[in-house]
């Protein structure tokens, strides 16, 4: 079956939950554009994310993030991967709820840690105990992520393709997001 997106699907969740990898494959499966809000922020500012944080601070970064997400939501329906803190912002939640659909890629802390440990470019984990910081971020953010209308669990035993299929299954239950267009031709 082939589908057409009616609204932008916004992937939210913690760093390492698979928003970018799942988002790319989901966009391919739905024949939609994929956009990563962090990549768009870098493009708009000419600074990498860690440099934005260190030069201007998290508040400045979050303001730019909100501007970029709103611009992307106003465009054609697409798959949008957001940074881990984007859904924490009240204005982002309102904009995403009004103009798109949030899908929470939910993952346990140990899986997230396995995916992010040792990787640079995670300014929030630049602490003395990054695992503890990640756990605390999960504890504080998960109740807010849970406000997303769609939840899809990410497991280490599932491939990206498995997760994409589960996201499509959830989206197909909602007639406000996907429209069936017939059999896939390619």
Automatic annotation (TrEMBL):
Keywords: Amino-acid biosynthesis, Aromatic amino acid biosynthesis, ATP-binding, Cytoplasm, Kinase, Magnesium, Metal-binding, Nucleotide-binding, Transferase. Substrate binds at residues 38, 62, 84, 141. SUPFAM superfamilies: P-loop containing nucleoside triphosphate hydrolases. Its main location: cytoplasm. Pathway: Metabolic intermediate biosynthesis; chorismate biosynthesis; chorismate from D-erythrose 4-phosphate and phosphoenolpyruvate: step 5/7. GO terms for molecular function: ATP binding; magnesium ion binding; shikimate kinase activity. GO terms for biological process: amino acid biosynthetic process; aromatic amino acid family biosynthetic process; chorismate biosynthetic process. Its cofactor is Mg(2+). Mg(2+) binds at residue 20. Its EC number is 2.7.1.71. It catalyses: shikimate + ATP = 3-phosphoshikimate + ADP + H(+). Monomer. PANTHER family: SHIKIMATE KINASE (PTHR21087), SHIKIMATE KINASE 1, CHLOROPLASTIC (PTHR21087:SF16). Catalyzes the specific phosphorylation of the 3-hydroxyl group of shikimic acid using ATP as a cosubstrate. This is Shikimate kinase. It comes from Mangrovicoccus algicola.
């Amino acid at each position: 079956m082939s589908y057409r997106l009616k609204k932008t699907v916004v992937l939210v969740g913690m760093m390492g939950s698979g928003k970018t990898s799942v988002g790319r494959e989901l966009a391919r499966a739905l024949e939609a554009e994929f956009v990563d809000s962090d990549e768009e922020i870098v493009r708009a500012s000419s600074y990498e994310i860690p440099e934005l944080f260190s030069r201007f601070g998290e508040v400045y970064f979050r303001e730019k993030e909100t501007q970029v997400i709103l611009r992307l939501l106003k465009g054609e329906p697409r798959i949008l991967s957001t940074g881990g803190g984007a859904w924490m912002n009240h204005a982002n939640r309102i904009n995403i709820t009004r103009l798109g659909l949030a899908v929470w890629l939910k993952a346990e802390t140990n899986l997230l840690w396995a995916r992010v440990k040792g990787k640079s470019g995670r300014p929030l984990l630049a602490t003395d105990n990054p695992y503890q910081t990640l756990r605390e971020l999960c504890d504080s953010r998960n109740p807010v992520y849970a406000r997303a209308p769609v939840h899809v669990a990410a497991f280490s035993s599932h491939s990206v393709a498995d997760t994409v299929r589960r996201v499509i299954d959830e989206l197909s239950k909602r007639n406000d997001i996907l429209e069936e267009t017939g059999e896939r031709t390619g």
